[in-house]
Amino acid sequence: MSSFTTPLVVSPLTDGRRWRLVFPFGYDVGYEGSGDRITVPLGFVTDFASTPFPIWGIIPPWGKYGKAAVVHDYLYMVKARTRKQSDDIFREGMVVLKVDPVRVFLMYWAVRLFGWLAWLRE
Q: Who has the most CB within 10 Å: 18, 71, 79, 104?
């Protein structure tokens, strides 16, 4: 099974919405030791899940899926993979983190349907 390879350590920014990585953060795609590692670098800035304020009661920016959201934010920024691959890795990461399957489904389809806005903006 896939694996987050290092702890996620972040520090809040003064805007109250974004966080900066204090250490690099890694994720092995597919399975641990697959050789397909994503390393989010020191200093990367994330807002975790980019959910609009009106739905924070249902899907807040931070939750059990936080590590997967950081990897997803990074993949959208660097565009080293397709948007579909990036979204699939987000879903895979949420499964690794044992996020509730209904939430995985909702969040995955939210990024599939609306993620193009962020993809074009980055």
A: 71
Q: How many percent of the chain have pLDDT more than 90?
A: 65
Contact between residue 67 and residue 103 where contact means Cβ atoms under 8 Å apart: no
pTM over 0.85: yes
| pLDDT for the residue numbered 122 | 58
**∠ at Cα 101 (115, 6), nearest 5°?**
75
User: Within 10 Å of residue 83's Cβ, how many Cβ atoms?
Assistant: 17
One DSSP character per residue, 7-42 reads: ---EEE-TTSS-EEESS-EEEESSSTT-S-EEEEPT
∠ CA(64), CA(77), CA(47), 5° rounding?
Answer: 40
User: In the numeric block, which tokens belong to residue 41?
Assistant: 């670098």
Q: Residue 82: how many CB atoms within 10 A of its CB?
A: 11
Does the pLDDT value for residue 110 go beyond 80? yes
